[in-house]
Amino acid sequence: MAECRDLLFPSPAAFQAMLEADARALGSLPRAQLRLLLPCLVRLALCAPADQSPAWAAQKKHILRLLSALEPVNAVVELLSIEFHVLEQDARKELALRRKAGSVTESVLVSQLQQGLALEFEHSEPPRRLRLVLSELLTLTAQLRDGGENNGFMRSSELFETEIYLQEVADVISILQAELPTLLQTAEVAEALLHIQHGTWFICLLVANSPDSFTQVCRGLIRGAEQQDEDGAGAQRRVEALRRLCLMRPSETLNVRSMAVEECRLPSLAVALTLDLGGEGLAKEVDTAGWTDVCTRGDLVAFVSGLLLGSSSRVRIWIGGFVRAGQQRHRGTRYTVLRRMRDRLLGELASILTSEHHSHDDAKEDAEILMVMEGITDETKKEGTTIGIKGSVLRDGNVVRASALLRLYCALMGIAGLRPTEEEAERLIELITSHPPATAAGVRFISLALAMLLAFSALVCMQQQEVATISWLNWMIKEEAYFESVSGVTASFGEMLLLVAMYFHSNQLHAIIDLVCSTLGMKIPIKSSSLSKMKIIFTQEIFTEQVVTAHAARVAVTPGLCATMPGFLPVHCIHQLLRSRAFTKHKVAIKDWIYQQIRESQLPLHPQLLTLLDAFITSVFTPASRTSPEQTNRPIAEDEILCLFQEESSVTAQLLILYYLLSYEEASLAHTRNLARRPQPYSPNLMDQIPVKHLVSQARRLQQQVAGLYPCLLRLVAASHPDLCLVEDWLQDEPGTGVTALLRCSLLPRGNARCSPQELERVFTSDLESPLPLLRLLSRLLLLPPAKLIPYAEEIAGGLGHLLAREAPQAAFHALARLWAALNSVMPRRLWVLTVNALQAPGGPTTRRCYTERDLMLDPLLVLRCDPRVYRSPPLMGIMLRVLAGALAASKAYLVAQLRATSDPEARSTPLGVAATEGPDVTRDELRSALLAAQDSAAVQILLEICLPDENESPQGIGHGGPSTLEAHVMPAGQLGELLTERREVQGLICSFLHQMFIADPNIAKLVLFQGYPSELLSLTVAGIPSMHICLDFLPELLIQPQLQKRVFGIQLATELCQHYPLPKALSVARLVLGVIGTLISVLPGTRRSELLVPTLPCLPGLCKAFPSLYDDALALLAQAVQVCGALQAACPNQAEPTTRPHPVASVNGHHRATDGENERGMDDLTDGSTQKVVGRAVTQLEGPLSDLLHNTFSQLVATAVIDSDTG
């Protein structure tokens, strides 16, 4: 401020000496500086110190000697000699009166003023001087509290404005604050002094005499300010005071600036302090303070860039408001802080450009020297591999500074809204079009310059600047290869330039905006209309679409491409050109480039590769125009694909080529109807030679490194190859834990689990009298990871046949089955073929065939044409069931793919000479569904036949004669052991497999139900297949079929289901069964009535046992049967054959069977003269072929109705 220019402020050396209480440093100060510090020095000398050490005593003596040479010491001593306690009491009384009355006419501290404050201060004694200054300070602080938001007022006070008394008043203020700290807080006093004339000087002296309060005072002054208040006089005084305080203690300048940023107040202070740190005068003073490292000219660029590009949006808004407000002021006023900042930045630009500016001859000479050093020939020089002569050349030391300046100006113009002047725009264009050296920093500078040119194309406003811009862009094109070879940077500016040109050609302006923002590292608003000038330059002056396409195909692939490579790579350019169909439009082959880039890819996977492959596949099937359907890219050849798997290629390349193949198959089926000329599909044997399941497992293991590749692979495999996504296989593929994993980790490094395939084959073919060598070898192989078992595939599959032929122990079968399951997790398809070929039915060499994967896909039932001994080996049967599940799933996928592939309307036309096989009401999809249903039902029927006993096996446990599941729980141990057989275990495996089939497709259960199967298996299927309850929904439809055999089968199945699932739905089915039997008894002729009654009458006791409420209906039905049979016997007496009644049987279905007398007594006990009694007598009088069956059925019904004494 102007009023403080002639006043002496404490120097940094004086403040540092006071802060450290260094007597020697104080002794080196001039007397004028010591006079400013006199209040604090006198208090140090007079007050009793807390430090009683001899060193401080010596320092105190030195201070006393310094004070003895100063004349004003006595006046200060007198000020310190009064009773401050009484003074504080009077001050508090006055404060209480002020709060009570609002204003005080008579002061407690000062009364009876005869003249003005200045004269009163001059004529008063020290106690009254203290009271006068204290009264003024209290009045000032009170006005400050009452001022509210108007903190910029100025307080006129004669006492603080008289220059001859300023030093004495400053002494009094310092003493009052030191002696009355609770009444006069330092920060509050400093805030009050800010509103008087010479307030900055008073604040500096107050802080110098109380050096520990520096931070408190600075923070208080900052918090008392507003966010954007540079225009007001109060804000200017505040900024001036804080700058003076920082000048007094330069080491805290950065901390004060950080306070302003933290509080988001006084942006002009933060910028002004940064400018002061770079000033020459301040730097000299700071050097004397021993603080030389902070004062650097580049701190302004770094500081303002940090504010605008930091993570705090609050700080960005704060500094942006400062820049916008600074541009709205009148040009005639004094230079503002913003103007000083812009001048400094313009000076930075001028210093870089001036130091790097060469004449034409100097630049040419430097270029020739550089070419000689780099070994560049004259021919290369003609191609433009030299440094541009027209533009300025940046030195290596200034490239980083220039890049920082470009980013700062981008932030100022894009975020803070700075409007550049003509001089600034000219300097910026000159810097943008300069030529940096071929280093990594130079590549970064060119990328930033290009992004800035696109973001702020309005900088190019003159014809000369446009010519310079075009020349600079042409220089970039020529220098791209040279920069990439010399700098060693993979992601050069050439890819970015090419990408921008492609975006302009495809009119993707928003993509250019995103590219510019990501390159600059900031989000700035860019209007699409502002890119029109640069679009004309790129598309008409420099890059045509054909030039861009031809140039992109010649760009070298990126070696070792991975996700850690930043910037814009060739893969980005190729992807954009594929999306715009530029390669197909201009007939430029790109297949080889993509294949080479796949080979060069590494982990972690670059995310752009997946989109690149998708765009390439689309270009294979989508022509550039409808008029030229032949303009498509060629797919990757099969030989090149197989080469990746035959050689030791990286897992990244194999995963990418697998993704390409699966996506190609999907796109081929999707574009079938839309293509006039379909590309040549890959041969079916190609996928057979690729370990799809192993690669999917690798992708799952490397999920963190392959980005989003694993979900895409899983979706494609599940859609096109569902046989590789069976639930049981996924559960088997879960990462192993426990003992096996522990042994695998502990034994494998020592080589204990290694053996050759020949050794395994030799053990299988050797004598198996002692299976220990085989079991030991299989246990060692089980410790290997599944991928390590691939070389043993043929031996493992062949070993199944060897063990079956030699009747090996079950332990060997189970160990080999576990080994087969582990190998199935990595190469299932090939293993399935090997297994089917190894377990074929025995026969001569002419009868045995060598099946292929295609054979299993066309006829999955080949799996079940195996050695019959497999049907009684649970481990081998489990293996064959898994192969059967995979073959059925592969067959379904194959038929679906064939249907989609041949769904072209032109392909449906029937050629001449071929009879049409499709009726008008039969569609191709219906035929496919019928074929699949027949295939599945045939597999189910074969599996059910396997459950039947052979000729040499006991039929126990099959059909009605065997024990039920509940009865098996109460059987003796000897009888229960008969059920624990291999056949029983195979039946369990088959029932579990059928359950999965029925759950997956309930229509299969319905089809098998309508086809029927041996009634001996009813109890087994109902008890062993949990999903058989769904047949309750199909039974009503089955019971109304015209074939009597289907109705009988439905009645028998309904009886088993009602006993196993006594549900409300089953009760309605049971009533329907009784109704159907009654109807059939009455309508069937006598010759066929026995075909109904013989198999169905034994079902009545089971229905009554499940639902006792049906007892009366069953008796009525039985009475009807007796009546019909009796009528038949009476009508045809000669046909009646006398039969002898059977002797009473001990039990029926585990229940006590009553004799005739017991039956009659039981019926008499129930209801005398009831229907039961009548039926019983009628049955006893009936004779004929059905009399025994009716008698046994009636006995069983009575047994179910009688309550046993044991259970009652």
Could you write a compact summary of the structure shown?
The chain is an all-alpha fold and 1208 residues long.
Account of the protein in words:
The chain has 1208 residues and is mainly alpha-helical. Helix content is 63%, strand content 0%. The chain contains 65 helices and two strands. A two-stranded antiparallel sheet has the order 1-2. β1 and β2 form a beta hairpin. It starts with 11 loop residues before the first helix and ends in a 7-residue tail after the last helix.
Q: What is the fold's blueprint, element by element?
A:
Layout: H1 12-20, H2 23-27, H3 31-36, H4 38-46, H5 54-68, H6 73-79, H7 84-101, H8 117-123, H9 126-146, H10 158-161, H11 166-179, H12 186-193, H13 199-209, H14 214-223, H15 233-248, H16 253-263, H17 267-277, H18 280-288, H19 299-309, H20 313-327, H21 337-356, H22 360-374, H23 378-382, H24 399-414, H25 422-432, H26 440-455, H27 463-487, H28 493-505, H29 509-520, H30 532-542, H31 545-554, H32 570-579, H33 582-585, H34 591-599, H35 608-621, H36 638-646, H37 651-670, H38 684-688, H39 692-701, H40 709-720, H41 727-732, H42 739-747, H43 757-765, H44 772-782, H45 793-806, H46 810-824, H47 828-838, H48 853-858, H49 874-901, H50 905-908, H51 924-947, H52 965-968, H53 973-977, H54 982-1000, H55 1002-1011, H56 1018-1024, H57 1035-1038, H58 1044-1060, H59 1064-1083, H60 1086-1096, H61 1099-1106, H62 1111-1131, E1 1147-1148, E2 1151-1152, H63 1156-1166, H64 1171-1181, H65 1187-1201
Antiparallel strand pairs: 1-2
Helix pairs in contact: 4-5, 9-11, 9-12, 11-13, 12-13, 12-14, 13-15, 14-16, 15-17, 16-17, 17-19, 17-21, 19-24, 21-25, 24-26, 26-29, 28-32, 32-35, 35-37, 37-39, 37-40, 39-40, 43-45, 44-46, 45-46, 45-47, 49-51, 49-54, 51-54, 51-55, 54-55, 56-58, 58-59, 58-60, 58-61, 59-62, 61-65, 62-64, 62-65, 63-64, ...
